[in-house]
Amino acid sequence: MSTRDTEGRRFRVQSLKEYLQKQKQIEQQLRESEECYRNLLEFSPEPIAVHQKGRVVYINPAGLRLMGSDSKEEIIGRPILDFVHPGYRDVVAERVRKIEKNETVEILEEKLIRSDGQVIDIEVLPVRITYMGEPAVLLICRDITERKRVEQALRERDANYRIIEQHMTDLIGVLDIHGIVTYISPSYQTILGDPPEYCMGKFLFEKVHPEDLPRAKRLFHEMIRTKTPRQAELRYKHADGHWITMEANGAPVIEENGEVSKIVFVARDITERKRTEELLRKADKLSLVGELAAGVAHEIRNPLTALKGFVQLLQAKAENHPDYKPEYFEIMLSELDRIHFIVNEFMLLAKPQVSNFQPKDIRILMQHVVALLTTQAIMNDVQIRTEFESDIPLVTCEENQLKQVFVNILKNAIEAMPNGGDLMIQMKMYSSEKVLIRFVDQGCGIPEELIPKLGNPFFTTKEQGTGLGLMVCYKIIETHQGCIHISSEKDKGTTVDIILPVHVREVRE
Predict the structure, then answer these.
(1) CA-to-CA distance for 470 and 462, rounded, in angstroms?
(2) Which of 66, 70, 71 is nearest to 48 (CA)?
(3) Where is the PAS domain positioned along the sequence (predicted)?
(4) Which strand (E) or helix (H) includes residue 497?
(5) Contact in structure between 359 and 506 (CB atoms under 8 Å)
């Protein structure tokens, strides 16, 4: 064998040794990598499982804990769908098919059935891998049962808040420290007429009554300065222009640094309550005047009759006297008649109300009253117009008393229009159980600050008035279980609303 052949053989042997050595190194690295990979899976805190052809071939200890099992043999070899809640099996099967086709899939939330039968929520990320030389799917799982429970609780709480927010009658709002609205509840529209979006980002106090604005601002700044709640009654302008009385309770929200960051307030429309309180006060006054009248009227009537009789007797005897002045007797008799008129007004308050209430058509009553006052209206250049709904039910009432109320209000309206104008009488249903009678004149009007005093004894805006006429009207309407509301604007006219319950048998279904 030549030297050349010997060297070639030695080279090939050396190369083979190097190849085998490298192969051993690669195998060692693979074993180390596999061991490292296995350790990574085994000691991972995340539940991990591998399935091939739809069956579980591997699960780590964290996966066993997730499944509520102590034995891998209980899990390995079983179809993966055995552990999936029936409601999710079709979705999971479709995802398995996509992965087998090497399509990309996203993280899925599903429900898992544990070995003990308990159903839990999990989050699964599937990854296509090769396991034991065969295609497989590695599942990285996470128990999200607690998270789902918290999310559901939050959703239910938010749903409850929305129900409360949508159906509560109180107004809830949040202001920044400059009084700008950052949140307002939907009830804003129910109470004040505008959609909630109207006032978002606006200064809340811009629609507060000018007389109440200084107090509102003062209380707001006091709340921020003292970091204590405040309460106030404020008049707020409705979208249609009238004023609503609101009772507001504000509380500062104090941050960790001790500073006020916002103001939360709850407000309630108390307009009707204030009106009811005013009616009760007037009712008390009427009751007091009635008691007073019962004692005073009888004491006055008898001597008044005697005085008038003697004055007439003296007048008859003095007619032939040379110093006879008929105007003196006329003045005395006129003043006696005025006293008699006032006493009669008192007696209406003192008398027990007639209990003979009968169902009546108030449209006919009103037509009789209008016919009675038409002549006076024409003399004052006043046009009386009527608008009556056709289906007004009967009203249980004492006919003459209601006529007295209508006459009083119509006479006041005519006298308030010395230069003439239109007097509108409207009659319509206020609700299914009440009827509204509205008198609208174009007279001189009444200053807003005087309206609350109307109905008080001896308060009147007329030079020759006593104030008792309107007081009697309040008394009569009160005995009819109704109410009177008066609104007016100086030099533009007055509106008087009378609301009465309809006859029980005529109440609409």
Answers:
(1) 12
(2) 66
(3) 33-103, 157-227
(4) strand 493-501
(5) yes
Closest CA to 440 of 400, 371, 498, 503: 498
Q: In whole angstroms, what is the distance from residue 36 CA to residue 338 CA?
A: 117
Element (H, E) at 237: strand 230-237
Q: Which two tokens stand for residue 197?
A: 């979006």
Question: DSSP secondary-structure letter at 267?
Answer: E
pLDDT in the model for residue 6 = 59
Query: What pLDDT sits at residue 188?
Result: 85
Instruction: Spell out the alpha helix ranges (H) of 112-175.
Output: 145-167
Alpha helices in 168-196 (DSSP H): 187-192
Structure pTM? Answer: 0.42
- How is 336-367 classified by DSSP, letter by letter? HHHHHHHHHHHHHHHSPPP---EEE-HHHHHH
Using DSSP's 3-state secondary structure scheme, residue 506 falls into helix
Taking the C-alpha atoms of residue 483 and residue 480, their distance in angstroms, rounded to an integer, is 9
Which two tokens mark 381? Answer: 């250049």
CA atoms within 13 A on the CB side of 424: 11
Contacts of 10 (CB under 8 A, 6+ apart): none
Consecutive 10-residue averages of pLDDT for the chain (509 residues)? 57 54 54 55 79 87 86 86 88 82 80 88 85 83 87 78 67 90 87 86 89 91 91 90 89 89 90 76 64 65 77 78 77 78 62 68 88 83 90 87 87 88 92 91 80 60 58 83 87 90 60
Measured CA to CA, the distance from residue 336 to residue 346 in angstroms comes to 15
The closest of 506, 504, 456, 454 to 481, measured between CA atoms, is 504
Enumerate the β-bridge partners of residue 25: none
Residue 429: exposure state from Cβ atoms within 10 A (0-12, 13-18, ≥19): middle
Evaluated on CA atoms 471, 476, 482, 487, the torsion sign reads negative
